[in-house]
C-alpha cells in the first residue's frame, strides 16, 4: 500500500497557474493581507465538509460549520440579544476567512449563535455535539440549557445534547473567553502583538463543529495498539452505557479484502493475531489495516464505526559504539523533517480546505523528508490521518504556555525553572493528558515533545516520567532546545544556522530539534514589508547552496551519534521568512527534486557506527 511520491499531489490538488494568483491578489487588496490559492475555493454552504475524525467514523452526521451570528461583549456580560454580524465557522475571529478580522481583549468574550434542525430519521436517537477545538474556554448552551464549560484550546470535546432538545428548531450558543498571552493556558506561538517567531492570536472555534446520532449504548473511543514483536494488534473500543451483555466484532481489511474477523466483549481489548504474517508501517510503505467495528446485542447492531490501524514499533537500540539510537520496527531509523508551525495567512490555525491541509503534508514527503515536527500546535484529526496514510513520522509538541524564558543553548542547565502557580501547573497537566489521549490512536506519532526552549518549563523529570509511564510506546523529548535536566529519552539541541550537537550522553538519543532558519523574502509572497530570519540570503541560489552545505553536516554528525534532525522550517509565517515555501504556499524557494535527493541521502546514508549492535 505504498504511496508513490507525488501521487496524491497529482490526483487531488489544484494545478497552480497565474490566473489563481491574479484572483488572490485582487482579494488581498479588498482586505486579505496574503491569501492561499484555496481561499477562493471554499464551499461556504459546506465548509470543510469532510468527516472530521477518520480514526472513528460513522456514516451519519451533520456539519454545523458555516455562518453563525457573533458578538463581542464584556467578559461578564450575559448572552446578547442582538449580534454584531456573521462569522464563518470554523475560522477564528482574527482570521481573514472568518469575515471579522478582529482580536479579542482579555476583558471581552466572544459569543456565537446558530440554529439547526434534527433530521426526522434521527428521532429517538441520542444526539452528540462535537467540537474539534475552541480556543480557549468554551461555555455551551442548547436551547438555554448550559451543558458544559470546556477549557483547552487544542483538544476536542463532545456533549450529549439529547435532553436539551426541543420539538422544533434548536438554538446553539457558545461563549468563548481567551486571554492569549495575558493568561497561563497553553497557547503555542500566539501573542497579541505578533513579532519575529510569535504570531497572530487565535480566538474561538477553529475546528469543525458537527452532530451525529447514536443509540443509548454506543462507542465513545477506539484505540488500536500494536504488539509488534508478537504479531498482535489489540483493539479497544470503549463504550457509553450498559454494555456488559454486548459483543464487539472487529473486521480487519487490507486493500479492501477481509483479513480476519475477531469478536470479544465490550469491556476488553480484542487481540488480532497475525501470526507473524503482517504488513508493517514505515514512511516508505505506510501500510494500514482498515477496521470495521460493530457493537452488537444479540442480533441487534447498536453501533458501527470505521477505523484503521498499523503494525509498527518505536523503540531503542545501541550502535556499535554503544550509543543509544532510535529504531522503527526493530530497524535503525534516522528521522529528518521540517519544523511545521501549522499557520495559514488566510485561516491562521485553520487550513482553508481539506486539500490545503493535505497539500502541506504531501509537500513534506515530496521533498524527501520522513518526519515532521508539529511545532507548539495540535492539528485537526484529519491532518494525523493524512500523515498515517502518506507515511510521515510526527514529533508532536505540547503547545507552550505561561511565561517565556530566554535560553542560552550553550548553557542548557543554567536556565531557571518557570515559576508556575498551582492552577497553571494543573492546567498544563490536564491538557497534556487530553492531548495524549486524543492523539494516541495515530500510528504516525513517534515522539511527545513536552517543552520547547524553556518556555513554561517546570517539573521536567516528574512530567517526563509520568508521560513515559502513561504512554510507553513512544519517545519522550522532555526539553527541546536546552534546559534538559536529563529526563525522558532524548537530548535535543537547537543551533542556528548550522546543525550542532550541544550536549552528549550515551544514555540518551541525540537530536537536533531545530537548525537552519535560512531566509529569503520572495517578492509578492510576503506578509508585509518587515522580514525576519535566522540567516537571510539575497538570492534563491544562495539559499539552496547553504541548505545543501548545512544538511551535509548531518551526515558527519551521525558519527557522533545523531539520530534525528529538524530543519526550520516548512513555510514562512507572517514576518518570519525561514520557509522552504512561501507563506501563501504558491512558491517553492528551493528545487523540490534537489531537496528530495539531498534529504533522502541524509536519511539513508549510514556508517559502521550507526549499524545496529543490539536492541533494547
Question: Which homologous superfamily in CATH is the superfamily of the largest domain?
Answer: Glycosidases
Number of helices: 8
The name of the CATH architecture of the largest domain is Alpha-Beta Barrel
Which structural category do the helix and sheet elements fall into? Answer: alpha/beta
Number of domains: 3
CATH topology of the largest domain: TIM Barrel
Main sheet: strands, sense, barrel? 8 strands, parallel
Mean pLDDT: 91
User: Per DSSP, what share of the residues sits in E-state strands of 2 or more residues?
Assistant: 25-35%
Question: Largest sheet, order of strands side by side?
Answer: 29-28-27-26-25-34-31-30
Poorly predicted regions = 1-31, 405-414
**Alpha-carbon distance between the termini?**
29 Å
Radius of gyration: 24 Å
Shape: globular
Question: What layout of secondary structure does this protein have?
Answer:
Layout: H1 7-12, H2 18-29, E1 62-63, E2 66-74, E3 85-89, E4 108-116, E5 126-131, E6 134-135, E7 137-142, E8 145-151, E9 157-160, E10 170-177, E11 190-191, E12 199-200, E13 204-205, E14 209-214, E15 218-227, E16 232-240, E17 247-254, E18 257-265, E19 270-273, E20 289-297, E21 300-309, E22 314-319, E23 324-328, E24 331-332, E25 335-340, H3 354-366, E26 371-374, H4 381-390, E27 393-397, H5 422-439, E28 445-452, H6 460-470, E29 475-480, E30 490-494, E31 509-516, E32 518-519, E33 535-536, H7 540-558, E34 562-568, H8 592-604, E35 612-615
Parallel strand pairs: 11-12, 25-26, 25-34, 26-27, 27-28, 28-29, 30-31, 31-34, 32-33
Antiparallel strand pairs: 1-14, 2-3, 2-4, 4-10, 5-9, 5-14, 6-13, 7-8, 7-10, 15-16, 16-19, 17-18, 17-20, 20-21, 22-23, 22-35, 23-24
Helix pairs in contact: 3-4, 7-8
Amino acid at each position: 500500500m505504498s504511496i508513490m511520491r507525488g501521487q496524491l499531489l497529482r490526483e487531488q490538488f489544484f494545478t497552480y497557474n497565474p490566473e489563481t494568483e491574479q484572483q488572490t491578489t485582487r482579494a488581498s487588496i479588498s482586505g486579505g493581507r496574503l491569501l492561499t490559492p484555496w481561499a477562493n475555493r471554499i464551499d461556504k454552504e459546506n465548509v470543510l465538509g469532510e468527516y472530521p475524525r477518520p480514526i472513528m467514523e460513522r456514516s451519519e452526521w451533520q456539519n454545523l460549520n458555516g455562518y453563525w451570528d457573533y458578538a463581542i461583549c464584556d467578559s461578564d456580560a450575559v448572552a446578547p440579544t442582538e449580534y454584531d454580524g456573521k462569522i464563518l465557522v470554523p475560522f477564528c475571529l482574527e482570521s481573514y476567512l472568518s469575515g471579522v478580522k478582529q482580536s479579542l481583549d482579555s476583558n471581552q468574550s466572544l459569543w456565537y449563535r446558530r440554529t439547526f434542525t434534527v433530521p426526522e430519521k434521527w428521532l429517538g436517537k441520542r444526539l452528540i455535539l462535537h467540537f474539534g477545538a475552541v480556543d480557549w474556554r468554551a461555555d455551551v448552551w442548547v436551547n438555554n440549557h448550559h451543558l458544559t464549560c470546556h477549557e483547552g484550546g487544542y483538544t476536542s470535546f463532545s456533549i450529549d445534547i439529547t435532553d436539551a432538545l426541543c420539538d422544533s428548531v434548536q438554538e446553539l450558543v457558545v461563549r468563548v473567553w481567551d486571554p492569549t498571552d495575558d493568561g497561563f493556558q497553553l497557547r503555542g506561538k500566539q501573542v497579541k502583538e505578533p513579532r519575529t517567531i510569535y504570531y497572530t492570536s487565535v480566538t474561538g472555534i477553529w475546528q469543525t463543529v458537527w452532530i451525529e446520532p447514536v443509540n443509548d449504548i454506543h462507542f465513545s473511543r477506539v484505540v488500536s495498539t500494536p504488539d509488534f514483536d508478537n504479531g498482535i494488534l489489540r483493539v479497544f473500543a470503549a463504550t457509553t452505557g450498559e454494555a456488559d451483555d454486548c459483543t464487539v466484532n472487529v473486521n480487519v481489511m487490507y486493500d479492501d479484502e477481509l483479513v480476519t474477523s475477531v469478536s470479544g466483549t465490550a469491556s476488553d481489548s480484542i487481540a488480532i493475531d497475525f501470526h507473524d504474517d503482517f504488513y508493517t508501517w514505515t514512511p516508505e510503505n505506510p501500510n494500514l489495516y482498515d477496521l470495521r467495528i460493530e457493537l452488537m446485542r444479540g442480533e441487534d447492531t447498536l453501533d458501527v464505526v470505521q477505523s484503521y490501524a498499523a503494525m509498527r514499533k518505536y523503540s531503542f537500540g545501541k550502535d556499535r559504539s554503544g550509543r543509544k539510537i532510535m529504531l522503527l520496527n526493530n530497524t535503525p531509523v534516522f528521522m529528518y523533517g521540517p519544523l511545521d508551525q501549522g499557520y495559514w495567512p488566510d485561516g491562521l490555525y485553520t487550513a482553508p480546505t481539506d486539500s490545503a491541509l493535505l497539500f502541506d503534508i504531501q509537500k513534506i514527503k515530496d521533498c524527501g523528508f520522513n518526519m515532521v515536527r508539529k511545532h507548539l500546535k495540535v492539528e485537526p484529526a484529519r491532518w494525523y490521518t493524512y500523515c498515517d496514510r502518506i507515511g510521515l513520522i510526527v514529533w508532536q509538541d505540547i503547545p507552550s504556555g505561561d511565561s517565556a524564558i530566554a535560553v542560552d543553548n550553550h548553557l542548557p542547565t543554567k536556565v531557571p525553572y518557570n515559576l508556575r502557580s498551582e492552577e497553571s501547573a494543573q492546567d498544563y497537566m490536564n491538557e497534556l493528558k487530553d492531548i495524549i489521549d486524543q492523539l494516541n490512536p495515530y500510528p504516525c506519532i513517534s515522539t511527545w515533545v513536552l517543552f520547547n526552549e524553556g518556555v513554561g518549563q517546570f517539573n521536567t523529570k516528574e512530567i517526563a516520567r509520568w508521560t513515559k509511564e502513561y504512554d510507553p510506546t513512544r519517545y519522550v523529548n522532555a526539553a527541546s532546545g536546552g534546559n534538559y535536566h536529563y529526563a525522558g529519552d532524548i537530548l535535543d539541541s537547537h543551533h542556528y544556522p548550522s546543525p550542532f550537537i550541544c550536549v552528549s550522553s550515551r544514555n540518551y538519543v541525540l537530536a537536533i530539534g531545530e537548525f537552519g532558519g535560512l531566509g529569503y523574502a520572495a517578492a509578492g509572497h510576503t506578509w508585509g514589508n518587515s522580514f525576519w530570519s535566522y540567516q537571510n540570503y539575497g538570492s534563491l541560489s544562495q539559499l539552496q547552496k547553504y541548505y545543501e552545505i548545512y544538511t551535509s553536516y548531518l551526515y558527519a554528525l551521525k558519527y557522533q551519534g545523531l539520530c534525528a534532525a529538524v530543519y526550520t522550517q516548512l513555510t514562512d509565517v507572517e514576518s518570519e521568512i525561514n520557509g522552504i515555501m512561501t507563506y501563501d504556499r504558491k512558491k517553492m524557494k528551493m528545487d523540490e527534486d534537489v531537496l528530495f535527493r539531498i534529504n533522502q541521502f541524509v536519511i539513508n546514508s549510514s556508517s559502521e557506527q550507526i549499524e545496529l549492535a543490539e536492541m533494547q
